[in-house]
Amino acid sequence: MPYVEIRYSYKINESEVRTQDIEIFNGGYLLYYNKIWEKINARNLILSVPQGMLIREVKAFDEESIREAINNALIHRDYSLNESIFITQYQQKIEIKSPGGFVGGVTVENILDESKTRNKLIADTLFKSEFVEHLGNGVNLMFKNQLSLGKNPPNYSKTNQNNVFLELDGKIKDIEFAKYVFNVANKKNRELSDKELILLNQIKENKRVNASYVSDNLLEIGLIEKVGYGKYLLSQNYYDDTNRSGEYTRNRGLSKEQNKMLLVKHLQSFDKGFKKDLIQVLPSLPWHQIYRLLDELRKEKKIRFVGDRRSYSGENAGCWKLVK
What we know:
- This protein is α+β, with helices and mostly antiparallel strands.
- The chain folds into three domains: 5-169, Heat Shock Protein 90 (2-Layer Sandwich), CATH 3.30.565; 187-252, Arc Repressor Mutant, subunit A; 256-322, Winged helix-like DNA-binding domain superfamily/Winged helix DNA-binding domain (Arc Repressor Mutant, subunit A).
- 39% of the residues lie in helices and 19% in strands.
- The chain is built from twelve helices and twelve strands.
- It has helices at 29-42, 63-76, 120-128, 138-148, 175-187, 194-204, 216-220, 236-241, 245-252, 256-270, 275-281, 287-299, and strands spanning 5-10, 21-26, 46-51, 54-59, 85-89, 93-99, 163-169, 224-228, 231-234, 272-273, 303-306, 319-322.
- The chain has a five-stranded mixed sheet with strand order 2-1-5-6-7, with helices on one face. A three-stranded antiparallel sheet has the order 10-12-11. It has a two-stranded antiparallel sheet with strand order 3-4.
- The longest helix has 15 residues, at 256-270.
């Protein structure tokens, strides 16, 4: 099978047409893996990570993640396709392309939860030879290694039905976040899972997360706090420690009573409020939450609804007014 090979190349950046180094590896994988790692490690940048009063030196690409990534490409590739596995290294990222899309049932969205093997004998052989440390959990391990250092998670977004594309980012995106998470977990003597690190990263990026996925562990050790239905923030201590208290206030938003006061103030200023106006008053809230606030004000006999509830324009359009 002439295409059972791994082709390595190095480029300074993505705009470069010519490659600096090319080498083709074939034969017994266990015999040449170390040579691939030596190639990668020869250009591996050293990153300085402050940890307390010490400076910890880490490599842009850790061997554990690289080995799992290459193992996955070898185990899950489609051997009926006459194509090679390609590893392209740049100064700050590594791309691995392997023939054949994801195994049936696996997607970019569920790759952490679905573990399916296209070539079971190869997987079993590597596991029994102790070359695969976490059978079925290699992707989870890569996510954990990347996020624990404040890097971007492994990126599979370019994957299609013909090829799996994996991008491992070597840049530390937010060292303060990584230090904070490490220090809190270390003080509480807790180890965070890959899924908890992913959730923390999503919350840091102000993405709405599924409440059922949020672990009690993150709330208990004080890494996050709940600020509304389905909405979480990194704890106030994180923003204090990173001198971003203003960002915390902005992300947390106004309290329910403050939002209600804004609605009343609008009605005081303009006499009445239509749906489109009230959405502009509280743009960060969905309409059903705004309506809930309006209903509370109605029950408190501070406002009333007038006009046609089914109409939002015209002379008889429904709107809210103050009770006088």
